[in-house]
Amino acid sequence: MPRESIGPHLAPAVHRQVIEFGEMLGVARRERGWTQAELGNRVGVGRMTVVRMEKGGPEVSVGTYLSAAWLLELPVLSWSEPGGGPGASTMASILAGLRRAAPRRARRVSTTRRDAG
């Protein structure tokens, strides 16, 4: 009987990008003179999570990757708020454009749950 795989699966191209991102984090960490344990303490994870992150481990959460990038001041995303002027995030601009282009029913965000039945 074949073994079931454990953990998330990534397309090869995506996995290569995650590995490169992890390598960038490692370079930025070393440039700051931080140990893996120091970065882990600042992010709120253990040293081994930082080791897995720097190797591009897909089991590390996106939030952990982005928290480390923010602490290391890597320009992965612009960290400004939507509509923040000339330095506003490209992602925020794209999101605002998508919201404007979406049909009205897709723009509504429900804060209550309707029970079926």
Describe the structure.
Helix 2 (36-43) packs across helix 3 (47-54) and helix 2 (36-43) crosses helix 4 (62-71). The protein folds into two domains: 12-71, 434 Repressor (Amino-terminal Domain), CATH 1.10.260.40; 77-108, no CATH class. The chain is built from six helices and no strands. The chain has 117 residues and is mainly α. The N and C termini lie far apart (43 Å). Mean pLDDT is 76; it is low at 1-7 and 81-87. The chain has helices at 12-32, 36-43, 47-54, 62-71, 90-101, 104-107.
How are the secondary structure elements laid out?
Blueprint: H1 12-32, H2 36-43, H3 47-54, H4 62-71, H5 90-101, H6 104-107
Helix pairs in contact: 2-3, 2-4
Mean pLDDT: 76
- The number of distinct structural domains comes to 2
CATH architecture of the largest domain: Orthogonal Bundle
CATH T-level topology of the largest domain: 434 Repressor (Amino-terminal Domain)
Helix amount: 40-55%
Rounded to an integer, what's the Rg over CA atoms?
19 Å
**Proportion of beta-strand residues:** under 5%
The H/E string reads: HHHHHH
User: Runs with pLDDT <50, length 5+?
Assistant: 1-7, 81-87
Largest sheet: none
Total count of strands: 0
Taken from the alpha-carbon principal axes, the silhouette is globular
Report the end-to-end length measured between terminal Cα atoms: 43 Å
* CATH superfamily caption of the largest domain: lambda repressor-like DNA-binding domains
CATH domain class of the largest domain: Mainly Alpha
